[in-house]
């Protein structure tokens, strides 16, 4: 059987950068899973404790925000992955600062709500 040599693809010129891009994408996916996991843990802990109406409302808000933040993280990381793949191949890479600031703001919001819940309502 005769082996045919495959032609290098555009992506193969920048293998290390593409692999780093994939690792970054997977890290964002793990982050979104962790956000949801922490929210479910918090909801389960809240259900087992005595609670008032305010703490129940805050836990529901945190749960809803965690789902929204997790979905945003997945969508934005997928978009960022595709854009960065193109930018790597074209050698026009630019960091995605607005995306980082947006996701960081959402995470700070939910972390603040977690802190408020744990330190004042438990």
Describe the structure.
- The chain has about 120 residues and is mainly α.
- It has one domain (about 15-120).
- The chain has three helices and no strands.
- It has helices spanning about 15-50, 55-90, 95-120.
- It is elongated.
- The model has no long low-confidence stretch (mean pLDDT about 85).
Quick overview of this protein structure:
With 122 residues, this protein is mostly helical.
Topology diagram in text:
Blueprint: H1 15-48, H2 53-90, H3 97-121
Biggest pleated sheet: none
* Protein structure class: mainly alpha
The total number of structural domains is 1
Tally of separate helices: 3
Question: What share of residues are in beta strands?
Answer: under 5%
Mean pLDDT across all amino acids: 86
Rg on CA atoms, Å: 21 Å
List keywords for this structure.
122 residues; mainly alpha
């Amino acid at each position: 059987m005769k082996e045919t040599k495959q032609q290098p693809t555009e992506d193969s010129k920048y293998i290390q950068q593409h692999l780093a891009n994939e690792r970054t994408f997977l890290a964002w996916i793990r982050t979104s899973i962790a956000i949801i996991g922490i929210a479910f843990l918090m909801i389960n802990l809240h259900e087992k404790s005595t609670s008032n109406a305010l703490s129940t409302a805050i836990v529901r808000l945190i749960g809803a925000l965690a789902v929204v933040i997790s979905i945003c993280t997945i969508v934005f990381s997928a978009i960022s992955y595709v854009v960065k793949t193109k930018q790597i191949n074209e050698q026009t890479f630019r960091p995605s600062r607005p995306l980082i600031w947006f996701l960081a703001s959402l995470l700070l919001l939910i972390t603040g709500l977690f802190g408020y819940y744990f330190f004042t309502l438990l």
